[in-house]
Amino acid sequence: MGLRAQLNEIQQYRSAYFLALSVAFGSVFFGYDIGLIGGVLALDSFQRYFGLDQLAPKEKASVSGNIVAILQVGCLLGALGISPFSARYGRKPCLLASGIVFVVGSALQVVSGLGPTKYHALLVLYVGRFIGGLGVGMVTALVPAYLSESTPPMIRGRCTGLIQLANNIGIALSFWVNYFASKNMAPTDRQWRLPFTMQIVPGILFLLFTPMQPESPRYLIEKEQYTRAANTLAYLNNCAPDDDTVLDTIQDVKVDFAGKRRLSFREQAKAVVESRSVFVRCAIPPLVMTFQQFTGTNAINYWSPALFARLGIGDTTAELFATGVYGIVKVISVATVLALAVETFGRRKSLIVGDSPTTSSPSLFGYISISAIYFYAVFYNVGWGPMPWIVAGEVAPNHLRTVVMSASVGCSWLFSMTISKITPLLLNSWGYGTFLLFSACCAGMALWTWMFLPETAGLGLEEIGRLFETRSAGFGRWGVDEAEADPTQRLLPSDR
């Protein structure tokens, strides 16, 4: 697609892009929270304030690991717990609630040790990170589903991929804020409070822009609010409410939801395993989100200053600078992919290409390994950075999307927590063998993608459902005969 055609597309779907950019601020604070803590833990001012410098190395590592992990526990619970509320009250109110929860948690982290919290500073920090994690977990489960349900098929991949771009922007911002604090601020408590304070900014922007956006049109159709749904689709497609695009979308969604809209949360969970094609569509999102963690990306995101120190970078400021460069490489890489490749190159090829050089994760020493980390960042953001969010959001069945996305993001946070906890142990015992393990995982993921994942770029959500109902989907024999009935209707009351 040429530049003029891309500009025309942006003009045509400007409302959909504005929606995507607005909720992407949720992914900015998600990314900022990921990248923030490694740099803060490296600051001498933080270690002195919370007494980490007085602890034995093993105890210090344990406390540091707890500070990292408590956020992820909150993220896991937030992602798993938001599904029934999203299904009942809608995506938009839950998105706003996630922003409020995150801002409250962030504020608690900023005031840790001030006033009456002076003698319970570490406890308040734990509580603040847990509450902030709840907000992050909620938003990571909600945004992919909301974007997949709201954006037109021809730009859905790019809009959903903004999750990863915004995530990387947040990570890069946290890296550079940490670097600024280390280089330019006196080593007092203000030095480590600044990074915590700055994470509130994307949360506030998220709460300012999200109220301007409409509710998910597919949620409105599910609730039989067809006029609102038509107006929303017309707004997002920049056309009239009676345009064929709008009417056809509404009809497709109504057919897809027929007999399913009354399923309770428990019945949705049962429906996941009632049909082979539905089960496959429900299994792919948790798989790709779990695979994303086994690339080792969060081993670098959370522990990058410590990793760069092991590779010969000198003092804390230099470590944070190298980490900041890593963040910029990630932002540029994923922005390039979203602009040029995601809708033309496709999901499947991007995942396979993105896997190939990640099997060359750093195994040497010094600056060669640092270059390898940057090289890894480029190809991670070709494939396993943005694509799992896109695939998970669009493959999940319409009537089960909230349950599936909660489970998928829950899996992501569970394994993110596991990997961040074991990475320091693996680095101490295995050294570069840690990255050889991640390399082996990447090779296996590339093979799985080639064998089993069909291409979904450019298809409507309802068309993706029909794709999985044929035996020609992908290379694996996972399809079902079109005559196989969707058994979810058996879960409905007999008097429907």
Describe the protein in words.
It is a single chain. With 496 residues, the chain is mostly helical. It has one domain (21-479): Growth Hormone, Chain: A (Up-down Bundle), CATH 1.20.1250. The chain is built from 23 helices and no strands. Helix 8 (153-184) packs antiparallel against helix 9 (189-198). The longest helix has 32 residues, at 153-184.
Essential attributes:
mainly alpha; Growth Hormone, Chain: A; 496 residues
* CATH-level-4 superfamily name: MFS general substrate transporter like domains
Label the overall shape: globular
Judged by helices, strands and strand pairing, the structural class is mainly alpha
CATH topology-level name:
Growth Hormone, Chain: A
Average pLDDT confidence is 80
Number of strands: 0
The helicity comes to: over 70%
By DSSP (H or I, 4+ residues per run), the number of helices equals 23
CATH architecture: Up-down Bundle
Radius of gyration of CA atoms, rounded to a whole number: 23 Å
Strand content: under 5%
CATH class category:
Mainly Alpha
* Model regions low in confidence, pLDDT < 50 over at least 5 residues: 359-365, 471-496
N-C termini distance: 48 Å
Pattern of helices and strands? HHHHHHHHHHHHHHHHHHHHHHH
Largest sheet: none
Can you tell me the number of structural domains? 1
